[in-house]
Design goal:
The protein is an alpha/beta fold and 523 residues long. It contains 13 helices and 18 strands. Strands 1, 2, 5, 6, 7, 8 and 15 form a 7-stranded mixed sheet that branches. A 4-stranded antiparallel sheet has the order 10-13-12-11, covered by helices on one side. The N and C termini lie far apart (58 Å). The mean pLDDT is 96. The chain binds flavin-adenine dinucleotide and succinic acid.
Length: 523
């Protein structure tokens, strides 16, 4: 059976949900999402959402902070759009029911994070994303035009390729007609035809061995668009968060929000000495790429496994009020933050690159939009400023929705799309072929394409990944599709794009730190 829907949204994080609420008055909406309806990177956001809010702050200051963090590679127009329109979008989120903490005088309690020159982060304790996701899901559930299909995994978008036409990256006017979706409860592959499709599939943390991202973050949307010959850009800019909790064996890694450093916590080596003064005058609150690299360098030169975050001097009540989730987590592990320092290490956290979009969120493929972490809008340049991604998702969801609603009336469903052809495929003989290959991809990426890179390491990563690519394509051809197999295929594609675009960039900038091109090498 083929389903027909005006708006097909792939992903139920902040991008997909806020877009759905904007378009639902104008047509029918399906949100397909591969896990539980609220499972997403959004749900785990801690620090908050950056917006110009206080009288002390200005649009210009937020723009400058974003540009500086971005290492000179941000699209300044996009930065201006996001910062200027952001405050209005956050107000809408509050109207939809999202709560943010207020101080005693009733004003929003604005936090500060690395790279921000002002306090401007709205937050709900240290579980801001959970609160945003809760509020948006509640609204979506109550909307008569929106259907959420959880445990539905998008395999590929449908284009002229599925009608037998030869489509290459040089082809003009490639159009998205919908997507093939695997219902992971029935194992049936459904054909969903749409007039407009939104990719809102989030990040790709699991291409690395250590990440703060939940397991859904396997870069599916970016890989789907790349396979369909859409443009993917800036993949070399992979953001490692400096402070994930060092707790060997825990996957994904638990985040220790940067807002704690904004609250006064200080980074120290195992012997209790501060080190950030050696790297940046902003000390523990320097932008993320600098702090992550500084920690990486201390670990390598000292031969140690973690550094410490010292919170012992912070007021106990204020800390617990602001960071109850982190406090509880630490206490469970026997780390009382007022007695002991918290062990932390950097972990893959955010992908700055992704599906290239214009200022209306349109990809290079017709009728396909992309919003959120899977998209590359130009906002982040070579390094994202903390708490700018939730903001970017809100602003671009609004813009993409407006464009989609404006064009919907001119669009029809495509006729003659074939259903998924699974003939000749068999169930996998051994799951180990999939799970072990995934581990190998993660090891290759973590060992050779991490915080500090070199031409030699990138070449080695490329050669190793090619072997996995060939093995997995052969497996894919003959195996009945499963979510795990598709995710592995996508992770290999993401790894390939990160390495290829890293090799292509012959400079050391922002998150792409290349020893070959850096004058004062850290190694
Ligand atoms: P997500 O929220 O990740 O949603 C993606 C959705 O797509 C999910 O529902 C997923 O299941 C679905 N999906 C993926 N692939 C498929 C598929 N093939 N088929 C069907 N569905 C699919 N940013 C900030 O601005 N401030 C913060 O404080 C902050 N803290 C963070 C803390 C953590 C621990 C993490 C991991 C990230 C944090 N970020 C923060 C980043 C921010 O949370 C994300 O960039 C943002 O939430 C991404 O939203 P999104 O809607 O694009 O994607
Ligand atoms: C954090 O709370 O440190 C994460 C903020 C972000 O990723 O923007």
């Amino acid at each position: 059976m083929q389903q027909k829907i005006d708006f097909l949204i792939i992903g139920s994080g902040i991008a997909g949900l806020s877009y759905a609420l904007k378009v639902a008055a104008h047509g029918s909406v399906f949100i397909v999402t591969k896990s539980n309806e609220d499972e997403s990177n959004t749900k785990y956001a801690q620090g908050g959402i950056a917006a110009v809010w206080s009288d002390k702050d200005t649009i210009e200051k937020h723009i400058q902070d974003t540009l500086i963090a971005g290492g000179g590679l941000c699209d300044e127009d996009t930065v201006r759009v996001v910062v200027t329109e952001g405050t209005e979008r956050v107000k809408e989120l509050i109207e939809l029911g999202a709560n943010f903490d207020k101080n005693k005088s009733g004003a929003y309690d604005l936090a500060k994070e690395g790279g921000h020159s002002e306090h401007r982060i709205l937050h709900y304790k240290d579980i801001t994303g959970y609160e945003i996701e809760r509020a948006l899901i509640a609204q979506v559930r109550n909307h008569k035009n929106i259907t959420i299909l959880d445990h539905h995994y998008a395999i590929d978008i449908i284009t002229q390729h599925h009608l037998g036409e030869v489509v290459t990256s040089q082809s003009k006017n490639i159009i998205c007609f919908g997507a093939y979706i695997l219902n992971t409860k029935t194992q049936k592959i459904e054909t969903v035809l749409s007039k407009i499709t939104l990719m809102a599939t989030g990040g790709a943390g699991h291409v690395y061995a250590t990440t703060t991202n939940p397991t859904i973050a396997t870069g599916d949307g970016i890989a789907m668009v790349y396979r369909a010959k859409g443009t993917v850009q800036d993949m070399e800019f992979v953001q490692f968060h400096p402070t994930s909790l060092y707790n060997p064996g825990e996957h994904p890694s638990f985040l220790i929000t940067e807002a704690i450093r904004g609250f006064g916590a200080v980074l120290k080596t195992i012997d209790g000495n501060e080190f950030m003064h050696k790297y940046d005058e902003r000390l523990s609150l320097a932008p993320r790429d600098i702090v992550a690299r500084a920690i990486d360098n201390e670990l390598k030169t000292r031969g140690e496994d973690f550094v410490y975050l010292d919170c012992r001097h912070i007021d106990r009540k204020a800390f617990i009020d602001h960071f109850p989730n982190i406090y509880e987590k630490c206490m469970k592990l026997g780390i009382d933050p007022f007695m002991k320092m918290i062990p932390v290490i950097p972990a893959m956290h955010y992908l700055c690159g992704g599906i290239l979009v214009n200022k209306e969120g349109q990809t290079t493929l017709g009728n396909l939009f992309a919003v959120g972490e899977c998209a590359c809008t130009g906002l982040h340049g070579a390094n994202r400023l903390a708490s700018n991604s939730l903001l970017e998702a809100l602003v671009f969801a609004h813009r993409a929705a407006k464009k989609g609603v404006d064009t919907l009336g001119q669009l029809n469903f495509k006729e003659g799309i074939p259903n998924w052809d699974a003939e000749g495929t068999e169930n996998p003989e051994e799951m180990i072929l999939i799970t072990q290959s995934q581990r190998e991809v993660q090891q290759i990426m973590s060992n050779y394409v991490g915080i500090v890179r070199s031409e030699l390491r990138l070449k080695r990563a490329f050669d190793r990944l090619e072997i996995l690519y060939k093995e997995n394509e052969a497996l894919y051809e003959k195996t009945t599709l499963s979510q795990k197999l598709c995710e592995l295929r996508n992770l290999i594609c993401i790894g390939y794009l990160i390495i290829k675009q890293s090799i292509r960039r012959k400079e050391s900038v922002g998150l792409h730190y290349m020893v070959n091109y850096h004058k004062e090498s850290l190694e």
